[in-house]
Amino acid sequence: MAATKNVELGEVALSFNDIGMTFPDGTEALRGVTFDVRRGEFVTIVGPSGCGKSTLLKIASGLLQNTTGTVDVDRDRLGYVFQDATLLPWRTISKNVELFAELHEVDKNKRQALAQEAIELVGLTGFENHFPKSLSGGMKMRASLARTLTLEPPVFLFDEPFGAVDEITREHLNDETQALFMRKGFAGLFITHSISEAVFMSTRVLVMSNRPGQIVDEYNIPFEYPRKPDLRFDPEFARISGEVSLSLRGAH
Amino acid sequence: MSDVTQMPTPPATASKSVRDRGRGGLRSVLPPLLLGLGLIAAWYGVTYGVLREDRRFLLRAPHEVVNVGFLDWENFSELLGGLWSSGKVAFIGLLLAIIIGVLLATIMSQTKLLEQAVFPYAVTLQAIPILAIVPLMGFWFGFGFTSRVMVCVIISIFPVIVNTLFGLQSVPKGMHDLFTLHQASRLTRLRKLTLPNAMPAIFAGFRISAGLSVIGAIVGDFFFGQGEVGIGQLIQKYAGRLLGEQLLAAIILSSALGVFVFLFFGWLGNRVVGKWSDAEI
Ligand SMILES: Nc1ncnc2c1ncn2[C@@H]1O[C@H](COP(=O)(O)OP(=O)(O)OP(=O)(O)O)[C@@H](O)[C@H]1O
Ligand SMILES: [Mg+2]
After folding, report:
1. What is the ipTM of this complex?
2. Domain span at A62
3. Which residues of chain B have pLDDT under 70?
4. Which of A99, A157, A168, B235 has a CA between 20 and 30 Å from the CA of residue A106?
């Protein structure tokens, strides 16, 4: 495990400037969203269901085209983890993890090495030749993380990646994601419905309002990394979580 | 990093199919076996109990069918010859239906416009009563091998097209997004995403078509009534001459061919996609 106490803050890697999004059917999903994420920052967005969080990530990745404003990000090696693991069922775990490198035409030896390293990093060693159907939800999510890690992404987008796993698995995955963050120092933009997950993981928590989604509050989370699981019982942790929760209530 | 390694918990469906396979042998064979024995008993019942002696040519007893149809070498070799001829037609017809059907569906899947243009005709082809098309085929292409194969293709291509198209189009959106994010070309997407995703459906289609192609081969031969003798012509001949035992033997043999190709494609499908797919083929 990396020994750094705090992750070093780097240059701005992802920047939203006055983003607005209105779908062709007239649904206004986002309005005037402006914020930056630097390398070494882990920013989490919390917000009510349907407020436009996923839409924002899709805009960041280029899957959707925003109707107003500008996004500034290098999309070449953008990491994007979906809520579903979206593993290809006909590929073994190692073949799944190799997929992105394969699509970028990395040669076979190199991509196998990349995949092996990523698989070890997420703790899936021994499952390389399994097909996704024989893995649990948490393990599939790990494979999905590993697949993204092969890109060595400077920017990492997470759309509620751990929403579908049980509480304990989620906490483990939180620890592991945090460890990856400390090791790689990427710019992280994370979405979750869990306030405790948001506060635990992040350097900054943004609260988004009901549709059309706008950033209504921003909280800097002062705890140093690595954060231990029992931080969740810290009074200061509880105080900040309470504030975020209150703000979120207001946003509804 | 904490190294939490959980044991995989296979999904319910997988464990179920494993269990079924484990017990499979006897459990799955016994019910149809019993029913089969029951049917043979009923058959004897009809032959000896229902029919008067002078009417028994209508339904010969099972052992007579076996004796005359299968154990008499001359009769049996005639049947085998017919089976060989019809089997060839069915095989070539099926092969063509598979190649043309998969290609057509793949092309259709690439352009909405083409799909919209072609699909109504595929449905129309399916809706033509096969009896109506057989004479036309003979009229156009003669009564030989070509026409028979054409009949087979027409009767068996539809399930290939529909299943392949369905499989190609049923890729979850998230998977498409993955390929979009990494700027995959159309061809890469087809090779690495949509085609593999379609495999279970494609094999399900092959399996249905295989049975139909056997029917097509026999129907074509039956109606053309000339050229190389297949099962269809034999059935016609036996029926015309009231050769009850041989008629039944021919029917049994032709359905055996249908069952064989059906099972074969099920087996092949399982070999190809059974490892990863939960779908029953
Ligand atoms: N293609 C689309 N066309 C029209 N409206 C859409 C489209 N995609 C999303 N929306 C609408 O835009 C709004 C924002 O959707 P989005 O998926 O970004 O919400 P979200 O914040 O991620 O919600 P959740 O927390 O439930 O995942 C929703 O009201 C949704 O119905
Ligand atoms: Mg969402």
Report:
1. 0.88
2. 2-74+155-251
3. 1-24, 279-281
4. A157
